[in-house]
Amino acid sequence: MLSSYLLQAGAEGAAGGGMAVMLIQLLPLVLIFVVFYFLLIRPQKKRDKEIQKMRSALEVGDEITTAGGIIGRVVSLKDDTLVIETGSDRSKIRIARWAVQTNNTVHDDVAE
């Protein structure tokens, strides 16, 4: 009788302690996700937002560099594409707006 009582008390204690052990084991995993969010995911989203803002603010006459390394001057803009002029022979290339890597033209932001 006493042994069955001890077994039952031990099982109840293990069930309550098991929950605490499980929470302690999950805590490092949760901390890893939080660290990854603040060190990797959040800064990447911020960079993506800045690049998208730069691509939407392109103007005719801006000098750009594409993701493929082509340097040219913007001749015309459309919704998803733009035409750039490259080289001394002024050849024109139509590219997708997402392919613009950098805008090499410095603009004076009067609004800011």
TrEMBL record:
Subcellular location: Cell membrane
Coarse class of the protein's main subcellular location: membrane
Membrane-crossing segments per the record: 20-40
The UniProt record lists the keyword Transmembrane helix: yes
InterPro entries: Preprotein_translocase_YajC (IPR003849)
Keywords: Cell membrane, Membrane, Protein transport, Translocation, Transmembrane, Transmembrane helix, Transport
One example of a Gene Ontology biological process annotation: protein transport
Membrane disposition: Single-pass membrane protein
GO cellular component: plasma membrane
Matching PANTHER family: SEC TRANSLOCON ACCESSORY COMPLEX SUBUNIT YAJC
Family in the record: Belongs to the YajC family.
Record-given protein name: Preprotein translocase subunit YajC
Organism encoding this protein: Harryflintia acetispora
